[in-house]
Each structure stands twice: as structure tokens, then as C-alpha cells.
């Protein structure tokens, strides 16, 4: 049985998070039973979500205009791709204590009421089942476990909204300090162990 993995990168600098994603992909592609799909959210940048696109989701597919079909396809295609894979790998740099806007634009297409989650009397219920996620987080400073790490809770909450609650995190921190080399090596070693478990 093949485990299908979707790797998303979102670094405008093509920096450390990209290197972590490439390390993961190289190892995964060399293993039998693992298939890897790459999506570079910088090279294939999605525009910010606008009212016309949001409105296209509210129109039945058979009733959409040509423009609405084109707009709705942005979300439909991203959701279909996510559903086709078993493991989602997000390689994420930290920008201004958050995630890149390009990655947020992807999430804005994925977090879609009626498609990937629904509202119930008990609160939102995720509709994307049987998936797990890996977060490869590259940071210039040391943020993990501190109040300044608003990035990790945001990512886990968005994933949890659609039903992805099995999330493994690998940090590479202090990359703007003299710890850079050791931090990257430690993260790559953790990735090697992760790939062995997939």
C-alpha cells in the first residue's frame, strides 16, 4: 500500500524551511511505499481571497457563471488534492510571528464550510478524515513553548478545524544565531526518523 504525501513549501526566500522540505522529499522518494507530490505556494501563488471568489462557493455548481466556475476551481482543486493524499507536510518559515500570507491564502481555500468542515450544535466538525500532518517549522529565534509562538497554535487549530488532529512538529530554531548549523542538523535528523515511521 502506498502512502501518498503532499509537501507544501511557502518560503519567499527559498531558505531553511525549503531545505527541510527537500531533505524530507529526498528521503521519502527513496523509500518504497511512499509517493510524494510537491506544491510550491510561492511559484504557484494563490491570490488573496476576495468577495467574488467567496461568493462563488455559495452558488450551486450547475448555476455558476464562467467566472464563478473559474473562481470556485481554485478552492475545489486544492481540496481535491488534499483529499487524494494521506500525509500533509507543511514547511513553514516564521514571518513576523506568523505564517507566510501565501500559505494563509492556501488555507483560505481549504477551510471551507460544507466541504471540509461543518457547523453543528456541538461546534465545528471536521470532514477531512484519516489524514495526518507534519509541520517543519523554521525560525530565526527561539519561540517554541513561549507566548510569542502564535504560529504553531494557529496551524494546529486550522488543521484541527477540518479534522486533521494527528500533527507532528519538527522545529529548526535559532537559525539567525550561531546555533544555525546544529539546529538544522538536529531537525534533519528528526526528519530522518519521521520518514522511517511513515
From TrEMBL:
Q: Which cofactor does it need?
A: FMN
As its record notes, the protein acts as a catalyst of: N,N-dimethyl-1,4-phenylenediamine + anthranilate + 2 NAD(+) = 2-(4-dimethylaminophenyl)diazenylbenzoate + 2 NADH + 2 H(+); 2 a quinone + NADH + H(+) = 2 a 1,4-benzosemiquinone + NAD(+)
Residues annotated as domain Flavodoxin-like fold: 4-192
Q: Which UniProt keywords apply?
A: Flavoprotein, FMN, NAD, Oxidoreductase
Keyword check for Oxidoreductase: yes
What residues bind FMN, as annotated?
11, 94-97
- Quote the record's cofactor note: Binds 1 FMN per subunit.
Q: Which InterPro entries match?
A: Flavodoxin_fold (IPR003680), Flavoprotein-like_sf (IPR029039), FMN-dep_NADH:Q_OxRdtase_AzoR1 (IPR050104), NADH:quinone_OxRdtase_FMN_depd (IPR023048)
EC top class named in words: oxidoreductase
SUPFAM superfamilies the record matches? Flavoproteins
Q: What is its EC number?
A: 1.6.5.-, 1.7.1.17
Which GO terms label this protein's molecular function in UniProt? Answer: electron transfer activity; FMN binding; oxidoreductase activity, acting on NAD(P)H as acceptor; oxidoreductase activity, acting on NAD(P)H, quinone or similar compound as acceptor
The subunit structure is: Homodimer.
Described purpose of this protein according to its UniProt entry? Quinone reductase that provides resistance to thiol-specific stress caused by electrophilic quinones. Also exhibits azoreductase activity. Catalyzes the reductive cleavage of the azo bond in aromatic azo compounds to the corresponding amines.
Query: What family does the entry list?
Result: Belongs to the azoreductase type 1 family.
- Indicate what this protein is called per its UniProt record: FMN dependent NADH:quinone oxidoreductase
Give the source lineage, highest ranks first: Bacteria, Pseudomonadati, Pseudomonadota, Gammaproteobacteria, Oceanospirillales
